[in-house]
Amino acid sequence: MKVPRPWSARAWLDTAHVMVGLPVSAVLALLTLVLAAVPSGLRRGLPAFTRVQRSRFAAFQGAHIPPTDAPVRWRSRATWRQLGYHLLSPLVSGAGAVLVALGWGGAVVGLTAYAQPRLQPPQQVFRFDLRDPVVAGGYTAVGVLLLLAVPMLARGMAALDLAVARMLLGPSRSELDRRIETLTETRAGVIDAADAERRRIERDLHDGAQQRLVSLAMNLGLARATLTDLPEPAREAIAQAHEEAKQALKELRDFVRGLHPAVLNDQGLDAALSGVAARAPFPVRLRVRIDRRPSPTIEAVAFFVVSEALTNIAKHAAAARAEVTVACDGEDLRVRVHDDGQGGASLDGGSGLRGLAQRVGAVDGVFRLTSPPGGPTTIEVELPCE
């Protein structure tokens, strides 16, 4: 916990949180006791009381306490936990307010000890004579210590109040576990749906637009070869259209292959990666040792990791060769891409590596990059097989 300085905004916010917490908590505790006699009124009032306390933590501590999903019912644990906080909060806030107020008050008295003799009447009111420099110096030293200690005390009391609020006003461990499980299932469904959509787009483009472009390019090529008696401008136009059609067909094939290669579905990761390695403009040593096929989503992630890594090597690394290893290790699929290039790659370099790391993280995988300046560069990925 970072210790705030006496004059920092954090120290004053903590002090304000503790001091404001006492009257707010006392009023809410009183209203809770009053409404306890009317169950219907308490069911309506308890969520409002909890929102007031959450807003106090958000205003002074910048802390967000997530709400619970459970409705206010007497059989609900969340209801009893909220009741417990509203009844316990005055004790926590009261102890904090008293300690912090005494601390700041003692600091002010100690730091103004040298001014007290001028305000003190001739007869001795205090046990110690503040006109004595030694006594005044002792008071001042105590004031300085309190000035340094009170911010820590205020921070600690505010942290204690926040911890109690998180425990009683926020979702319980079982609720958090259910939320995590639901989010995990939802994320897996979204990832699978996106992968299925990519496969559908790949099939539609392969069977539709790509076939039409193939037919167009063939017809233009046939016209270019047979219609030799046309005027020169017409023949040039046909030749140019033929070349444009072939270029468009090549770009579409690359795009379709980048979406989701059909060979990945039909023949698996080994065959798909073999095609990627063969198209690389430098030698690639590929080793794939997989005893069973992973899920289609994991296969797609592994394929795109290798494909994007080799593309980055070709564009940025100036490498002479690369090595790709894919192997199953128990329940994990391990992918390693190594090159002898110039190194210096980073996730912030805008080279697509951040997108790869995000895609790996989306399926609970681990992405590691080692690329010192001068090389070599190694990308290691661990993916769950399911």
- Report the count of strand segments: 5
Treating each run of at least 4 consecutive H or I residues as one helix, how many helices?
Answer: 12
Low-confidence stretches: none
Helix and strand composition category: alpha+beta
Order of helices and strands: HHHHHHHHHHEHEEHEE
Task: Report the biggest beta sheet as strand number plus sense, adding barrel if it closes.
Answer: 5 strands, mixed
Instruction: Tell me roughly what share of residues is in helical segments.
Output: 55-70%
Shape: elongated
Q: Give average pLDDT, whole number.
A: 80
List the strand order in the largest sheet. 1-2-3-5-4
Give a quick set of tags describing it:
386 residues, alpha+beta, 5-stranded mixed beta sheet, 12 helices, 5 strands, elongated
Topology:
Layout: H1 9-35, H2 39-61, H3 77-111, H4 116-119, H5 133-169, H6 173-207, H7 209-226, H8 232-259, H9 262-267, H10 269-279, E1 284-289, H11 296-317, E2 322-329, E3 332-339, H12 353-362, E4 366-370, E5 377-384
Parallel strand pairs: 1-2
Antiparallel strand pairs: 2-3, 3-5, 4-5
Task: Provide a short characterization of the protein structure.
This protein is α+β, with helices and mostly antiparallel strands and 386 residues long. The protein has helices spanning 9-35, 39-61, 77-111, 116-119, 133-169, 173-207, 209-226, 232-259, 262-267, 269-279, 296-317, 353-362; strands at residues 284-289, 322-329, 332-339, 366-370, 377-384. The chain is 66% helix and 9% strand.
